[in-house]
Amino acid sequence: MTDNHPPTLTDISLHQKSRVLSLSFSDGHQFDLPCEYLRVFSKAEEVRMTDRPITGKEAVNIERVEPRGQHALRLVFDDGHDTGIYSFATLYHLGLNQEKNWQDYLARLEAAGYRRDAPSPGAALGGASVRLLYFAWLAQLLHKEQESLVLPASVRDIKGLLAFLRKRYPDRERYFQDDEVQATVNKQFSEPFTPIDDGDEVALVLASPTPPAGV
Fold this sequence. Notes:
single chain; 215 residues; NE0471 N-terminal domain-like; Ubiquitin-like (UB roll); 3-stranded antiparallel sheet; 11 strands; 27% strand; elongated
């Protein structure tokens, strides 16, 4: 891969609840890039020309993703920033170098005396009160169709919720493996990193249409 011939961008998914833009490229690379990361690394002139790091973007979100020509996207952020054009090569390199770029950014914030004490993009604070809905075979296995729970503070996303449910229902642990269950949050399809907030409705159904043994 060269800057002149980057892999083709094959799929784009904007997860606004999680504040994450998921990108897939033709060479198999997949990146989940937080909106904050994309905002502070914008290639717009007003961002590139400042000596100080961009701050206060912990909760920024992307409102729209617009194609620009055959090899670029314009990202429209909800703080009014809409002049950043991201070539596919730029997005690819932001994905490849995400960890290093982010650590460098945090070091610049520290040097500037800015305290970034917000949770990572998409992370809930924990202790959320949620309504869980169980469908089809999963409802039969648990002998219930719904329940209301106050989650531990450590449960912040779908992946954490499934881990919590494996401990809550040890005799049904295998049905709460990440690849065994599908989840929606407030009737929207979720990813493992989708955050869970207070008052959310989370629906769970087994991924396989075949009834489990013993049902």
